[in-house]
Amino acid sequence: MSALDAPPGERRWFFRPRRRAAKSHRRPSLVVMICLLWLALVVFTAIFAGWLAPFGYTEQSLLNRLKPPAFFGGPAEHLLGTDGLGRDVLSRLFFALRTSILVALLGTGIGAVTGTVLGILAAHFRGWVDDIVMVLVDFQASVPFLIVALAVLAFFGNSFVLFVCIVGLFGWETYARLVRGLVLSVSGEGYAFAIGTLGVHPARIYLRHLLPNIAGVLVVQLTLNFPEIILLETSLSFLGLGIQPPGTSLGLALGEGRNYIATAWWIGLPAGVVIFLTTLSISLVGDWVRDALDPSLAQSE
Amino acid sequence: MSGPFLLRKFARCLLTLLLAVTFVFVVLRLSGDPVQRMLADDVPARVIESYRTMWGLDRPLPEQYLRYISQVVQGDFGVSFRDDRPVAAIIAERIPATLNLGLLAFGITLLIGIPGGIVAAMNRGRLVDRVVMGFTILGHSLPNFFLGILLILYFSMTLRLLPSSGIGTWQHMVMPAITLGTSFAGTVARFTRTAMLEVLNQPYMRTARAKGLGRPARVWRHALPNAAIPIVTVIGLRLGALVGGATVVETVFGYPGIGSLLVNAVAQRDLAVVQGVVLLIAFTMVLTNLIIDLAYGWLDPRITTSGKETKA
């Protein structure tokens, strides 16, 4: 789980020979196209899960328990088979996808906003505000986030809102550090000073003038953070400490599948494959976006 | 490495530890009255009061805070809510298993990651490089719990070679160590490659080649020591991921270490055990970071006695 430590622009050449790297920023390679297609499919499925799913995700059929997938000799109406309660694995996969994507989107948004605001505050006020934020950043960076998340879940119990907040806090310190540095360097530039002397309110300066200037870097950080958040959510749910039944998420589906691994591999495996392909796609597309946003990275390689 | 440098490092470590203890204390008190959570609803008020007195919950908060710190410093993490045994003892009996697994996984990480990164850097742009880097991307997208399940499916269920869970023989260690070790190896390989590429472009590498040094001497004597600093930094920074990964991997393989202890304690809301494990992990992380900071001075004499890194 470590997209954060990927040096920017480091993996790009793997799918696009270096010779052509400088010229083909606009046109994505075949691999990136396939990834984009997969992501579009994921988003489409997540949005329309209710219409696409042949069965309800809690709909049980005790006569049809543990049926293998249709292509392994199971009944044709359950394409990916059924689980221990006779629920359709494919339908549950769609709904799990919806939950996981929703949590990841909300979480990414919360983390980005929290980190950005704290970073701006630190850079604006300097002094003790800055000190406090930076000590918190150091603390967050030195203790494994999964452990902090587990502790908070233990102390406060589990609810969907709390869970989303915890997932959302992941990575806030990276945004905070990044934005603080950027704001400090941008504030020194003439235009920020010029607007300031016009008597414009600081909040307006940050929102209207500084933020657009650092948006590119933030988007890059978003693409690095998103797959990690999916992995965090699925890890916690897999441990049984995230999304709670009767709800479902990709991690929870895989966790439930682990209990049946000796007899019914098809319960968990599809969720694992979807997690894998989705995080892989986001990473690869993220690399491509980074190149498109910052061509200077390609030249430095 | 001089006095002030060390002193500042130590002060920072202590501050982080104090923050961790404070964080745990605040969260512990915010989360409600432990007595009420532990005892049944129909317990008489008199008993509840006596428990509160016994645990010092009737004292003012600052006093509770100081008392908590002094207990933690003395290694007293309280008593498990579940079976009344001291938390310190419960944790202590799990430490060897986790240490074994962690060291083995760490060894695998280094054995795969560093040579992989070096080979990729030496063959930059060629097939070997692409294969290695491809594996790092795959490894970093493949969640370790999924990899663990795939391994169980193949080696335990299909081939029936290795036990799927538990502890005891060396066979029990194979799959957890591989799962945990490989999850981190990709990161190390990627950074080793980057660090090596940076060094390989330096003028002194050309000089070494010009004076007729063989390839092994150039790589081992000239390139690797100079690339070591960023590699060690990354390993240190990402050690937390290894610790977090251990909780997941131990759970997948039913391996009785600190990680599965924590997960079970969270599931049962055994707060005494949770705070003990969290503090232990925080302490370990801080200590590791300190050791890594000290290792810099040994790896690179340019990180001077003033504690500042000078660009030489």
Summing up helix and strand content along with how strands pair, one would put the structural category of chain A as mainly alpha
Tally of DSSP helical segments of chain A: 13
Mean pLDDT of chain B, rounded to whole units?
A: 82
Q: What's the rounded overall pLDDT mean of chain A?
A: 79
Based on CA atoms alone, the radius of gyration of chain A comes out at 22 Å
| Number of extended strands of chain A | 0
Approximately how much beta-strand content do the residues of chain B carry? under 5%
Gyration radius of chain B, in Å: 24 Å
The unreliable regions of chain B are 304-312
Tally of strands of chain B: 0
Global geometry of chain A: elongated
Helix proportion range of chain A: 55-70%
Q: Tell me, what's the shape of chain B?
A: flat
Helix share bin of chain B: over 70%
Q: Structural class, judged by helices and strands of chain B?
A: mainly alpha
Order of helices and strands of chain A: HHHHHHHHHHHHH
Tell me about the biggest sheet of chain A?
none
Main β-sheet of chain B: number of strands, strand sense, barrel status?
A: none
Distance between the termini of chain B: 17 Å
Given the structure, what is the number of helices of chain B? 12
Order of helices and strands of chain B: HHHHHHHHHHHH
